[in-house]
Amino acid sequence: MFIFHKDTQLDDLGNGVTRRILAHGGKMMAVEVMFEQGAIGPMHNHPHEQLTYVLSGEFEFTIGDKKHIVTAGDTLYKQPHIMHGCVCLKAGTLLDTFTPVREDFLK
Fold it and tell me: CA nearest 11: which of 20, 3, 24?
């Protein structure tokens, strides 16, 4: 399947965060998440495995009891049910990949 960026919808999540659902199907989903400087991705958990690739910007991420600053090119893994969240230190974009598909994002 092909998903063209121009055909996707940008969803405003509020507080300086926007999200764009990219390709998804089967057991995988890709999501682009844009953060303004100072925006917060609140601490949360879910039953999905998640990989995050930092496309741009600078973020302070917390995963479980570990906290690190990450920048473009860094990758993070979040196992199912682990608490995680971030603070955007410099405006940027993350590429999240989930398995299975985040059905809650599609509603």
Answer: 20
pLDDT in tens, 65-101: 999 999 999 999 999 999 999 999 999 999 999 999 9
CA distance 15 to 13: 7
CA 105 to CA 11: how far, in whole Å?
10
Neighbours of 4 (CB within 10 A): 7
pTM reported for the whole predicted model: 0.95
What the block records as the tokens of 35 is 């953060």
Those residues whose C-beta lies under 8 Å from the C-beta of residue 73, and which sit 6 or more positions away, are 54
| Domains parsed from the chain with CATH numbers | 5-105 (2.60.120.10)
Residue with tokens 């989903």: 29
